[in-house]
Design goal:
Blueprint lengths: L3 E9 L2 E8 L7 E11 L1 H8 L17 E2 L5 E2 L4 E7 L6 E4 L6 E5 L3 E3 L6 H4 L2 H14 L6 E5 L3 H10 L6 E5 L5 H8 L2 E3 L8 E6 L4 H9 L1 E9 L15 H4 L3 E4 L12 H11 L9 E6 L3 H7 L6 E5 L3
Parallel strand pairs: 10-11, 10-13, 11-12, 13-14, 14-15, 16-17
Antiparallel strand pairs: 1-2, 3-6, 3-8, 3-17, 4-5, 6-7, 7-9
Helix pairs in contact: 3-4, 3-8
Length: about 325
């Protein structure tokens, strides 16, 4: 069995390279995984690539199998689908929160089997759909709620896709880019520009990572309404409009972050398994809007033209 691999490392602002790496000798409870696909989480990985992780968040923002320290050099990523070549689960397709690397060795309990109903190429979305699941556990939407998702990026669209299954809600995806309308249509949800979005919302999930988006999210709320903030601003300061109707309307603003399971009665493994089960729906294919080969990844990242949603990396056979 091959004892070496190739991995993507972020080396300086806007630059990355593929390096040869040696694989550890697997133990009896480890699996050896050959990567089929990985996914680029545009918001977070772009932040890491430019060195924008605040020093105060270096420990919090570490990926499970990250190597190196922020800002650089660092091996970073967490959307990986591969097939087990050695150890338990031999032959199974699995998802792992692992960086962009051709092969790797991890404990068997660090991977989640991909259901037979979910294609490996779609399973790269599992980490993002897991974030959506956690956000909705935080948000606790109710039947009949008037809901807006502000920010039609990878996370926002994942939230909208999950909410589209929820009965009796008024749901709209809100984004300044009219091109997101086609994605919303594919997901089966309404679309509106920020100016045209329907107000009087019971719940707004904000995922645009912009000051303007957060302000608009608060403006869309009905009295007693709630904004769940999913955006990661990194080292940027943002202004929050807490005047006008914020107090009189008894509005609520709370954060949601996937690093903590929002339900104390569920485990990380259960949350990930649920995300993968949801991906049996082919509607999620609309969230994959670009693809490249692993060998081309440094030039793709350097070009700065990543697609707005998920960029899938193909490792070939």
């Amino acid at each position: 069995m091959t004892r070496s691999a190739r991995a993507l490392w972020f080396t300086s602002s806007g630059k990355s390279e593929i390096r040869d790496v040696a694989l550890a000798e697997p133990g009896p409870d480890d699996v050896v995984v050959r990567t089929l696909y990985s996914g680029i989480s545009r918001g977070t990985e772009s932040l890491v690539l430019r060195g924008g992780v605040p020093e105060s968040q270096h420990d919090v923002m570490r990926a499970p199998f990250q190597e190196g320290d922020f800002p650089w050099p660092v091996k970073y990523g967490y959307l990986n689908v591969g097939v087990v070549e050695g150890g338990p689960l031999l032959g199974r397709t699995v998802f792992c929160l692992y960086p962009h690397q051709t092969r790797y060795v991890v404990p068997a309990d660090a991977v989640t089997p991909v259901p037979d109903s979910v294609p490996a190429a779609r399973a790269v979305l599992a980490g993002t759909v897991e974030t959506a699941v956690n956000a909705l556990w935080d948000a606790k939407p109710m039947i009949g709620d008037r809901i807006a998702v502000v920010g039609g990026g990878m996370v926002g669209c994942s939230v909208a896709a999950v909410l589209a299954r929820f009965p009796g809600v008024r749901l709209q995806l809100v984004d300044a880019d009219p091109g997101r309308a086609s994605v919303a249509a594919a997901l089966g949800v309404g679309f509106a520009s920020p100016e045209e979005a329907s107000g009087n919302c019971d719940l707004v999930v904000h995922a645009s990572a912009s000051e303007e988006g957060l302000a608009r999210s608060l403006a869309l709320l009905a009295p007693e309404g709630q904004v769940v903030e999913l955006s990661w601003y990194g080292d940027r300061r943002v202004s929050v409009p807490l005047g006008e109707f914020f107090h009189s309307g008894r509005l609520r603003l709370r954060s949601s972050q996937v690093g903590v399971v929002a339900r104390p009665d569920r485990t990380y493994a259960e949350r990930m398994a649920l995300a993968l089960d949801l991906l049996a729906d082919p509607v999620f294919d609309a969230l994959i809007t670009g693809e490249s080969r692993f060998d081309d990844l440094p030039s793709v990242l350097a070009g700065g033209a990543l697609p707005p949603l998920c960029h899938r990396v193909d490792y070939g056979s």
